[in-house]
Amino acid sequence: MAFAPMGPEASFFEVLDQHRASLLAALKRGGREPAGRGTHLASRFEDSVGLHMVPHCTTRKIKSDSLKSVKNFALILKVLSMIYKLVQSNTYATKRDLYYTDSQLFGNQTVVDSIINDISCMLKVPRRCLHILSTSKGLIAGNLGYIEEDGTKVNCSCATAVAVPSNIQGIRNLITDGKFLLIVEKDATFQRLLDDNFCNKMSPCIMVTGKGVPDLNTRLLVKKLWDTFHIPIFTLVDADPHGIEIMCIYKYGSMSMSFEAHNLTVPAIRWLGLLPSDIKRLNIPKDTLIPLTKRDQMKLDSILKRPYVTCQPFWRKEMEIMADSKMKAEIQALTFLSSDYLSRVYLPNKLKFGGWI
C-alpha cells in the first residue's frame, strides 16, 4: 500500500524531522524527554511513563461477610463469572453488553465500569485481556493503512474519517509515511479541518480525534501509532483548562487508569495550540474570549499543582498567562482572522517553524 505525495515540499518538514530525530535520541537514552524538558520524580508520576500506579499504594478490602461491602463483593463475582465465560469461549463483549445482561442488578453503567477497572487493576492485566472491549467514539483520517483482526483492509482517507477500531490490539500491518500525528480535541474542529482539505495540504500526516475526553480505544491507537512509527505527535485543544486536561490525559494519563499507564500514555506528545500566548500574539479581540468560571479556575489550579507540570515550564507559563488574564478561548476564535485561518495559516506556520511546547 503506497500513498501518493500531495502535500508541501520536503523542506517544509525540516523542523519536524529535526524534532523527530530528538525524540528518537531520547528513546535511545531510555525514554526520557529531550534534555532540559524532563525531570524524574520519585512519586506516582514518572516523566517517561506518565501517571502510573506505585507498587505500595493504598488498597481497600471488600469482604463477603461485611454488610458494608457484601453487595460490591457479589457484583464483582458476577462480573468475574462473565469474564471467565468470555475467556473460555474466546469471545469478546463491550462494557455495555455486560451491563445489559442484568441492568436491574447493576443499577447503572458506571457500576460496571468501576468493577471492570477494579478487576483489571487487581489482576494487573489490561482490560482487553479480560476480553472486554470499549465502544469506540474516536475518528482517524490521513495517510494510514492497516488490517483489522477479521482481515478487513482499511485505508484511511485524507478527505473522510474512519472510526477508530474497537480492538486496537488486533490490528496489524500498519503502514504510513506520515510526518506527524495531530490529535484534535473536538469533533467540530476535526471535521472543519477535513472540509478545508488540511490532510491533503499537509500530506503526509495523520489526524485523530477522541471527540472530547478520549475513550480507551483512541488512547490505545495513539499509543500504538507512537510505538510503531515514532513520529511527532501534537495536540490541538481549546485554550482552556478542559482542553489542557484532555491533552494531559493523552500525554500523562489519568489517575483512574494509572495501573495501565504503560499501555496508554505518550509523554512525547507536544502542545501545538491553541496556546494562551497566541491570543495576545494574534491580537484576537477580547469580545471573542470567554471569562473563566469558578470551576475553570479550580481545574486550572489543580493542573498547576500536578507533578508533571514541574517538568513542563513552558506549559506552566502558558497556564499562568491564562490564570492572570482570567480568560479562555476556543479554537473557533481564530475564525475572527479569517474563516480558514486555522488550516491555511495557523497550523502550517506552527508545524513549519516549530511552534510547539
Characteristics:
alpha/beta; 357 residues; 41% helix; globular; 6-stranded mixed β-sheet; 3-stranded antiparallel β-sheet
Task: Describe the secondary-structure layout.
Elements: H1 14-28, E1 45-46, E2 50-51, H2 70-89, E3 93-94, H3 95-100, H4 103-106, H5 109-123, E4 132-133, E5 139-142, E6 145-147, E7 153-155, E8 162-163, E9 172-175, E10 181-184, H6 187-195, H7 198-201, E11 206-209, H8 216-229, E12 233-236, H9 241-252, H10 261-264, E13 270-273, H11 276-281, E14 290-291, H12 294-304, H13 313-325, E15 327-328, H14 341-353
Parallel strand pairs: 3-4, 10-11, 10-12, 12-13
Antiparallel strand pairs: 1-2, 5-8, 5-11, 6-7, 6-9, 14-15
Helix pairs in contact: 2-5, 9-12
